Amino acid sequence: MKFEINRRTLLAGAAASFAMPSILRAAEWPERAVTLAHGFGPGGNSDGIARVAAEGLTAELKQSFVVDPRPGAGGTTASDQIARATPDGYNLIMFTGAHAVAAAIYAKLPYNTVDDFTFVSLIAGGTPFTIATYPDHPVNNPRDLIEQAKKASRPFTYASSGIGTTLHLAMELLASQAGIKLQHVPYKQNSQSMVDLLSKRLDFVINGPASVFPQIQSKEIKAIAVTSPKRYADLPDVPAIAEVLPGYDVTSYYGVAGPKGLPANIVSKIQGVMTDIVKQDTSISRIKGLGSTAMASTSQAFHDLVKADVDKWTKVVKDANIERI
């Protein structure tokens, strides 16, 4: 019995000694440069907001946070790489709402969209998409759109940046809730969809407010609706779809995440910096300029947001009979 107790004590001590270095490393994180990936190309909104986060983390934690664009397969290439990474805090990712959309639109993914990640904190969100049309289009607001779509001899057409994007599914959600039909026309370039809209070959475009704001200000196009639950502060005269369809809500968000099992103290450190960043005037201004609103969150709130979005978009894809990729 005495030998058994001593053997157990020795084994416990050995286990503790092996665990101690990893515990200490997590406590001292970061000791070297950290990669902050995202699934889109350089120069876009995701890249810009990732750089706001990276610069804030670099300044506060005294180590370099390097933004690493990894475009491909709607952001899923980067997500897969992070899901497979060691959860030591040196490989992080900036997720957008597209992370949840991918779970709905792809028939099979090499990772679990919710369970294979540690959702740390939002840095931006709450910003709607804007539906716009040419100036003399008979539709002027969401109520017009729904009423006239029900009477039209053909479905209204709308442009988005591609099949299975959040923009595409936002319009399909509108069609589903309103009981109308809309015809999707995907475009690779926003500039070409704008040309076709102004030539009246399209009825509507849907995009982030920053992408269409210059044309709205110059009155080249008119905004008829925003997709947030309430009106957007920068477009106060434009009705929210939710004013006609209560409960309708599609807004963009951006947040920092890592692989499943990211140590709690690393999560806490990042959350603390995110909370500070979103209070800084410079960060608020930069994020607003990228068409979003600065905001932080708890890990659980970010997790729950993604999970709810996966459920919502999966239903939209099924109800609209959109073929999964």
Please characterize this protein's 3D structure.
The chain has 325 residues and is α/β, with parallel strands linked by helices. The chain folds into 2 domains: 32-127 and 251-319, Bordetella uptake gene, domain 1 (D-Maltodextrin-Binding Protein, domain 2), CATH 3.40.190; 130-243, Periplasmic binding protein-like II (D-Maltodextrin-Binding Protein, domain 2, 3-Layer(aba) Sandwich), CATH 3.40.190. The protein has helices at residues 2-28, 45-61, 76-83, 98-105, 142-151, 166-178, 190-198, 209-217, 264-277, 281-289, 299-319; strands spanning 34-38, 65-69, 91-96, 117-128, 130-133, 156-160, 182-186, 204-207, 222-226, 251-259, 293-294. The strands form 2 sheets. The protein has a 6-stranded mixed beta sheet with strand order 2-1-3-10-4-11, sandwiched between helices. A 5-stranded mixed beta sheet has the order 7-6-8-5-9, sandwiched between helices. Helix 2 (45-61) links the parallel strand 1 and strand 2. Helix 2 (45-61) crosses helix 9 and helix 4 packs parallel to helix 11. The longest helix is centred in the N-terminal third of the chain and has 27 residues, at 2-28. It is globular and about 65 Å long. Residues 1-5 have low confidence and may be disordered. InterPro entries: BUG, Bug_dom1. Belongs to the UPF0065 (bug) family. Keywords: Signal.
